[in-house]
Design goal:
Blueprint (H helix, E strand, L loop, with lengths): L11 H16 L12 E6 L5 H12 L3 E5 L12 H9 L4 E5 L3 H10 L4 E5 L5 H12 L9 E5 L4 H12 L3 E5 L8 H14 L2 E5 L10 E4 L11 H8 L6 H7 L3 E4 L11 H4 L6 H19 L4
Helix pairs in contact: 1-5, 1-11, 2-11, 3-4, 5-6, 5-11, 6-7
């Protein structure tokens, strides 16, 4: 494991190893308080962020390291300086590059020229750090991930892709239940199906909410992805049947609810559910930090 761009590049053992390390870091933070002493992590941001920025910054600090935040005030990546030169320069100073970018191609080019690990903290195709935190949160509530049935409901996107790929590797049953025209990328679905067959998992893609029957966990995300200027009101009618509410949970016997946030309350999820007893959404947000710290420690040589 030299970089983390997408979960499809990891083995089942590697994912479980990261999740186990994340669990240990969360349970005994003092044990890991000096693991990144003297090391610096650059966090590049082309997109706005709350959870990703804060959890990497504070997380690195808790491991004894130093996080350096770079936004676009010095010019967009690849414009003021080439991505190649970004990678080559940063590699001389830091131990890892964490990048939240618009295009997966930017990450691939960073990897091509960087001599330090590159971590995808979000791109147009994947969100692996989010998915690892999601699986950690599910594992806190279910003893065997391979027996968990996880359903994503809403607009198929980068989060959906990482849940499907990671869940397939872990042998889970993962469903993407999306309106017609909003399904996940067909090539990602093909890859997830391939991985599921190899690992005893199952991938379901449907536009019918009745496919939720028998699922343990339902997962929501915004109906309009970051960078899409479509007003929420314009898509409300199309997505309204897919809202996560108490009626849905009761009808289909859902046990727990996840949402990667930011959440638009009363649109894709009701406040009653988000703040209710079946919600593990804020545990999920906390676990971003622990899962990401586990990724960094898995990538960076440390004593």
């Amino acid at each position: 494991m030299n970089h983390l761009l997408t979960l499809q590049d990891l083995s089942r053992e590697q994912i479980l190893g990261i999740l186990d390390l994340a669990k240990n870091i969360k349970a005994d933070p003092a044990r890991y308080a000096t693991t990144l002493t003297g090391k610096s992590i650059v966090t590049l941001f082309e997109k706005p962020s709350l959870r990703t920025r804060v959890t990497f910054d504070i997380g690195v600090n808790r491991l004894g390291g130093h996080a350096v935040y770079l936004d676009q005030q010095n010019g967009a990546i690849g414009n003021r300086e080439s991505i190649k030169d970004y990678a080559k320069n940063l590699s001389r100073w830091c131990e890892a590059i964490v990048a939240r970018v618009y295009s997966h191609k930017t990450l691939q080019e960073l990897c091509r020229y960087a001599s330090v690990p590159v971590v995808n903290s979000l791109c147009d195709l994947y969100h692996p750090c989010q998915a690892l935190a999601d699986f950690q949160t599910i594992a806190e509530n279910y003893s065997d991930l391979s027996q968990v049935k996880l359903a994503y409901v809403g607009d198929g996107n980068n989060v959906t892709h990482s849940l499907m790929l990671g869940g397939a590797i872990l042998g889970m049953e993962v469903a993407a239940i999306c309106p017609m025209g909003s399904s996940p990328d067909a090539q990602v679905v093909l890859k997830a199906n391939e991985l599921a067959k190899a690992n005893g998992g199952k991938i379901v893609v449907s536009d019918s909410l009745d496919a939720l029957a028998g699922y343990d966990v339902v997962y929501g995300d915004t109906w309009v992805s970051m960078g899409d200027d479509t007003p929420l009101e314009q898509v409300k009618e199309r997505f309204a049947p897919y809202q996560i509410n108490q009626q849905m949970l009761d009808r289909y016997g859902i046990g727990h609810v996840l949402h990667c946030q930011p959440a638009h309350r009363e649109f894709e999820i009701t406040s009653a559910v988000m703040d209710g007893p079946q919600s593990i959404i804020f545990d999920q947000a906390e676990n971003r930090m622990h899962a990401q710290n586990a990724v960094l420690l898995s990538l960076i040589q440390h004593d």
